[in-house]
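quick one before i forget lol
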Amino acid sequence: MSDPIRLLLADDHPIVRAGLRAVLDTEPDFTVAGEAATAERAVELTAEGGFDVVLMDLQFGTGLHGSAATAAITARPGAPRVLVLTTYDTDADILAAVEAGASGYLLKDAPPEELAAAVRTAAAGQSALAPAVAHRLMDRMRTPAEALTRRELEVLQLVGDGLSNQQISKRLFLSQATVKSHLVHIYAKLGVESRTAAVAAASARRLIRQPG
């Protein structure tokens, strides 16, 4: 019999981690070998080795974002696979995770059998995308001229979070002129003329998370 797939659960909610453990422990070829309540802790634990797949949330209460942790983990030689498990299915979140090196992207409402299959797929080194996520990525590929770039989505998400151009420039290490240029392109692609309208249109199309 082959060795079990060793899992690390990275989520800031203890109840979510307990629920995942309860589901995953029923699979004979899985072993939940560790838990992390912060993205920083997930990076630390994977550096020590001993994990095959990390189930990574995107939003932690404070500190490092799940995508940043994914990038830090997957940058190392022999790193475990990272399977993002989140409630968010926006283009901004999906692109950030995929570009960070995630092997899969699954929503938390996925049925247990779909979760188990995704873990095995990721452990085997293959891509494990939820059908809805794969569909969104395919739509982006079909209409690249209309799709917001990763940076444009990042800027627009921060606009939605209530940040000013000056604050966005500091957060993303961009000049204010570059931020304004991104907003001009965003308005043109979305067919709007204001920050408020851009956020409303992007939220409705699930390009960014809802404000608030």
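fyi The radius of gyration is 18 Å.
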